C-alpha cells in the first residue's frame, strides 16, 4: 500500500501543480501502468478517494498499443521472493515505452 500511495502522490502533484502542463488534467494525457491487476484496483480506489478517479490505470498487458504524454509505472511485486513480471523483457519494454515524450 505504501508504494501505491507514493504513486498517487506523484499523480496528484502532476495534476494539481500550477507549473505542470495543464493538459495533464485530461484523462488521456496521464496514465499509470502496473504489472498486477490487484494493484490496478488499489490505485483506482486510492485515486478515487483523492478526487482523481479520472486518471487512467491499467496493467502492462492491457496497455500494449496505448500511449500517454506521461506514464507513471508502479513496479510493486506480488511477493518478496521473486521479481516476477519485472524480469519479463517484453512486459518491461511495454511499460517503459508507453510515454509519448
TrEMBL record:
Q: Classify the source by domain of life.
A: Eukaryota
Q: Which residues form a coiled coil?
A: none
(+)RNA virus helicase C-terminal domain: residues covered:
1-101
Query: What Pfam families does UniProt report for this protein, alphabetically?
Result: AAA_12 (PF13087)
MF terms (GO), sorted A to Z: ATP binding
Q: Which InterPro entries match?
A: (+)RNA_virus_helicase_core_dom, DNA2/NAM7-like, DNA2/NAM7-like_C, P-loop_NTPase, SF1_C_Upf1
Give the signal sequence positions. Answer: none
Name of the protein = (+)RNA virus helicase C-terminal domain-containing protein
Amino acid at each position: 500500500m505504501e508504494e501505491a500511495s507514493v504513486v498517487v502522490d506523484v499523480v496528484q502533484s502532476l495534476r494539481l501543480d500550477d507549473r505542470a502542463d495543464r493538459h495533464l488534467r485530461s484523462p488521456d494525457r496521464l496514465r499509470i501502468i502496473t504489472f498486477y491487476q490487484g494493484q490496478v484496483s488499489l490505485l483506482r480506489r486510492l485515486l478515487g478517494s483523492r478526487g482523481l478517479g479520472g486518471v487512467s490505470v491499467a496493467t502492462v498487458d492491457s496497455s500494449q498499443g496505448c500511449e500517454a504524454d506521461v506514464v507513471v509505472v508502479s513496479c510493486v511485486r506480488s511477493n518478496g521472493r521473486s521479481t516476477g513480471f519485472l524480469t519479463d523483457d517484453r512486459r518491461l519494454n511495454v511499460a517503459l515505452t508507453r510515454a509519448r515524450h
